[in-house]
Amino acid sequence: MHEKIVELQTLREALEKDISKADSPDSIEEVRVRYIGRKGSIADLFKQIGRVEPQIRGEFGKTLNSLKQFATAEIERKVKDLEQQETVAGVDPTLPPRPVAQGSYHPITLIEREVKRIFSRMGFAVMRGPEVEDVWHNFDALNTPEWHPSRDASDTLYLADVPDMLLRTETSPVQIRTMQAQKPPIRIVAPGRVFRNDKPDATHSPMFTQVEGLYVDKGVTFSDLKGTVLQFYRHLLGKNVVTRFRPHFFPFTEPSAEVDVSCPFCGGNGCRVCKQSGWIEVGGSGMVDPNVLETVGIDPEVYTGWAFGLGVERMTMLLYGVDDIRLFYENDIRFLQQFGGRR
Ligand SMILES: [Zn+2]
Fold this sequence. Notes:
Layout: H1 3-21, H2 25-36, H3 41-48, H4 54-89, H5 107-121, E1 125-126, E2 132-134, H6 135-138, E3 165-167, H7 172-181, E4 186-195, E5 207-217, H8 222-237, E6 243-250, E7 253-262, E8 279-288, H9 290-295, E9 304-311, H10 312-320, H11 333-336
Parallel strand pairs: 1-4
Antiparallel strand pairs: 2-3, 4-5, 5-9, 6-7, 7-8, 8-9
Helix pairs in contact: 1-4, 2-4, 5-10
Residues 263, 265-266, 270-271, 273-274 line the site of zinc ion.
């Protein structure tokens, strides 16, 4: 082989060694200048082409060109490698810190925690139960008559392949399970997901979150219920709200009442949120039906109790001015970030 071609091969080997030895942006830059810089060794060789003997000039030129391409590509690759290492190691102490992506609680979680916190302070324990329930715990034990429309498959989601099993329609089965397992006094709140055969729209979702409260002891009265519910809503919505109990029917309680609170936004004068009525409907309540106490083995001649429930999504929509329930389940981070922090 001609010595001029050997010279190019030797230079290529030296270049490879220098590139692999380079361990910093400065040292690879130095290699770049030395080999492919305007006054580097490759540029120098290009100047010599005219002086190379004619019979090998073609081969020399070709080899030199491919050496230049090789040098450019390899040096470029090394520069990128070193930059990446730099980033991983984070070695530049003069750069401002990278922002830390901070998570926040889901608005439903915020309100559920707030509800639990208020009841904990009043001496209530938090109980949870299965979301897949049997018909007995979800309906029969709760005194739901056979004819009640909520039992229908058009309202309730039954499991296709397991008879008498369903997705619970309330967290009330947790109350049944607690009363079966404990003797009074019982003071619990049961938060959790419940399911209905509903088509989703702005105010309905086939899955939503409920909190129910239960208090069973000797001498528990309707006025205890009214006092506790009032205190709860004053903690949650503001110390000036008042409550209103309207007679209603629920199978589980007798007597039963719907609970309204005075609108915390207009003080009861009427506004857009309360649809000018001054009142907002917030949930059901009542005295536990003696049939229910008997079913779970608690003597209704000795003990009485009350229960009440509220929808967490509804309360969250009210408190944060959210007008479509579906926003809670889309997990759009632009929506969820607006509720950052604690409540
Ligand atoms: Zn209002």
